[in-house]
């Protein structure tokens, strides 16, 4: 049998990406990396207009197009509006990165309905309906979805049960969407361990470093590299890429 020698370009030139929660921190880092790789960006935020515009300005300095859109992802009508704005401005969507999330600590006995809803709605419900709203454009472009799960969705932490349950849901959602949207759209997820950024306290990563075989926490570049890998991994769908320095071992 003849070897398939087709190779896919690593450039994202001409592609349009929507990264939720991309005005700040990890979402912002991912958006900027995609812009460096040639993509135009939709910078989603809920209530960070100045940070979102700063991110847009940085992307435009790279010669890429970008716009900031505010939307409350807990409201499905606002999610649909976000995708409508994307289509109106760019006419297409190739990449959806569901990175918007929260991380709420609560013990089992004191978990309230409010905390439960905040965790499940932000981390799971929003990602599902973003995927639903984006699906028509992604099918047309044969695009890709990258979801942000968490190692807590694989090995739950007692002090963060609603969060861990929501991220376990993201893993199952990823697998289900990979079936529902195939073959046009690939859907994968990353499950980070502790990721630290400039300004984070050393105490945040100390326990993780003690337990992780690689003896370091993750950095934004590790997340960026993983997102790019999943975007370009043409024969991968429904998978969860664990980025934890070996911590779950």
What does this entry show, briefly?
The chain has 249 residues and is an alpha/beta fold. It has seven helices and seven strands.
Write a concise keyword list for the protein shown above.
7-stranded parallel sheet; 7 helices; 249 residues; 14% strand; alpha/beta; Rossmann fold; 45% helix
Report on the structure:
The protein is 45% helix and 14% strand. The radius of gyration is 18 Å and the shape is globular. It has one domain (16-243): 3-Layer(aba) Sandwich (Rossmann fold). The chain has seven helices and seven strands. A seven-stranded parallel sheet has the order 3-2-1-4-5-6-7, with helices on both faces. It has helices at 25-36, 49-61, 76-90, 113-141, 161-180, 202-211, 220-232, and strands at residues 16-19, 40-45, 66-70, 95-98, 144-148, 186-192, 240-243. With 249 residues, the protein is an alpha/beta fold.
Which helices and strands appear, and what pairs or packs with what?
Elements: E1 16-19, H1 25-36, E2 40-45, H2 49-61, E3 66-70, H3 76-90, E4 95-98, H4 113-141, E5 144-148, H5 161-180, E6 186-192, H6 202-211, H7 220-232, E7 240-243
Parallel strand pairs: 1-2, 1-4, 2-3, 4-5, 5-6, 6-7
Helix pairs in contact: 1-7, 3-4, 4-5
Q: How are helices and strands ordered from N to C?
A: EHEHEHEHEHEHHE
Q: For this structure, what is the CATH homologous superfamily? A: NAD(P)-binding Rossmann-like Domain
Look up the CATH topology.
Answer: Rossmann fold
- Tell me the total number of β-strands: 7
Strand portion: 5-15%
| Number of discrete domains | 1
**Uncertain runs:** 1-9
Strand order of the largest sheet: 3-2-1-4-5-6-7
């Amino acid at each position: 049998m003849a070897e398939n020698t087709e190779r896919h370009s690593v450039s994202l030139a001409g592609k349009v990406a929507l990264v939720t929660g991309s005005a700040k921190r990890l979402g912002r880092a991912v958006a900027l990396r995609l812009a460096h790789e040639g993509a135009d960006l939709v910078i989603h935020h809920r209530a960070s207009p100045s940070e979102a515009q700063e991110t847009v300005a940085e992307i435009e300095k790279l010669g890429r197009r970008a716009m900031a859109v505010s939307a409350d992802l807990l409201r499905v009508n606002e999610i649909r509006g976000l995708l409508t704005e994307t289509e109106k401005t760019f006419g297409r969507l190739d990449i959806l990165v569901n990175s918007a999330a929260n991380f709420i600590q609560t013990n089992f006995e004191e978990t309230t309905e409010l905390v439960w809803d905040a965790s499940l709605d932000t981390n799971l419900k929003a990602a599902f309906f973003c995927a639903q709203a984006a699906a028509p454009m992604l099918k047309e472009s044969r695009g890709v979805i990258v979801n942000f799960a968490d190692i807590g969705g694989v090995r739950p932490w007692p002090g963060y049960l609603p969060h861990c349950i929501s991220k376990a849901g993201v893993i199952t959602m990823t697998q289900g969407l990979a079936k529902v949207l195939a073959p046009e759209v690939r859907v994968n997820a990353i499950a980070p361990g502790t990721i630290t950024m400039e300004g984070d306290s050393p105490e945040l990563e100390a326990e993780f470093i003690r337990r992780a075989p690689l003896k370091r926490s993750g950095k934004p570049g590790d997340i960026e590299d993983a997102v790019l890998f999943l975007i370009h991994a043409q024969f991968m769908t429904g998978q969860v890429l664990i980025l934890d320095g070996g911590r779950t071992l």
